[in-house]
Sequence to fold (161 residues):
Amino acid sequence: MTVVTKNVEETKILAKKMGTIIKNNTTFHSQILLLTGDLGAGKTVFVKGLAEGLEIDLNITSPTFNLINEYEGNPGLMHMDFYRIDSAEEVFNLGIEEYLEKEAVKAIEWPQLVYKFIENDFILIKIENISIKERRISIKANGVRSQKLIKRMKTDVDIRD
Ligand code: ADP
Ligand code: MG
Fold:
């Protein structure tokens, strides 16, 4: 599905809806979300909205420097950002495999070097700048579970495909 948001709030509302669906169905509690888009596209904004839906009240900050931020919850949230990482080996050395095994939603910015470590069921969120405040957000599913999640988004959210 593709949605155009007109401002930060709309991006957060869309992400919050996804977070709420995840929270309300334990099947999705280990969901992997890969976020792509240029610097400043809105990946971290999306994760903030997602956290709202997950009812995680902590302030979400960009993990550009710490690489992985973990937030407790039911489910918890792991927010990763591999912008500063140059190789899959570095990702491996961070202990990525252990992190991915935990029951928590994993939101991963700059996921290019992570693909080889993740399971085959994930959601890909691509954010593109249209103008200063408009973003085109394409959400795609890979795998049956993720497809189910997107189907729920479409039925629960009043937006056209
Ligand atoms: P990224 O994590 O992709 O590098 P951020 O989420 O940190 O980007 O920053 C996105 C920037 O774009 C913020 O400054 C935000 O205010 C701005 N912005 C403007 N319009 C939007 C929108 N429609 N959705 C998301 N962010 C937006
Ligand atoms: Mg970011």
User: Anything to note?
Assistant: The chain has five helices and seven strands.
